Amino acid sequence: MEIPYRGSGKVYYADKEYQCDLYYNEKQGGIILKINVKNKNRIGSFLEVPLEMPHLCGQLDSGFKFTLLDLRRLSMEDMISYSKTVFTFDASYILCGIGEKGQAEQTFYKAHYTLSLIHISEPTRQAEISYAVFCLKKKKTTKKIK
Which CA distances in Å does 140 have to 46, 110, 113, 117? Predict the structure, then answer.
């Protein structure tokens, strides 16, 4: 699967701002984020950004805002000649148009449905068909990601 480059910009994590490059394929679903961290020393810190993040907000230089969900680090590359480290992440989901600096949590709503059985018919001699009637009940839940 080819994952095309979408643009450069900034992401915000732990009250810090990092340069980034975003790659994603809308049709096939691949999402890659490369976070560029400038190093004061020649070699970067493995612990600068975590191995996994539940969400990360950002904005490209074009003004496109995004929030990535369920990020996992794929690699870390020290670019000593540029005094930077590049952390590459894979994300499960992208929310387009949503993402603000300093946004501490995202709230998502999902609906759960339960089925309750109301009636089951008994087959008769004339018609050997039975049927069941169900009632669909909606239960709304809220999930906050911090």
Answer: 41, 6, 9, 20
Tally Cβ neighbours within 10 Å of residue 125. 5
Show the tokens assigned to 68: 């990535």
Instruction: Determine if residue 90 is left, alpha or beta; phi over 0 gives left, psi from -120 to 50 gives alpha, anything else beta.
Output: beta
Instruction: Please say whether the beta carbons of 90 and 69 come within 8 A.
Output: no
Longest dimension (CA), the chain: 86
Contact residues for 138 (Cβ-Cβ < 8 A; gap 6+): 111, 112, 113
- pLDDT bin (cut points 50, 70, 90) of residue 73 is very high
- pTM, full prediction: 0.66
Task: For residue 54, give the amino acid letter.
Answer: P
Cα(19)–Cα(87) distance, integer angstroms = 11
Of all residues in the chain, the percent with pLDDT exceeding 90 is: 34
Q: Do residues 98 and 139 lie in contact, with contact meaning Cβ atoms separated by under 8 Å? A: no
Beta bridge mates, 79: 84
- The string of pLDDT tens digits covering residues 87-121 is 999 999 888 887 766 555 555 555 556 666 566 66
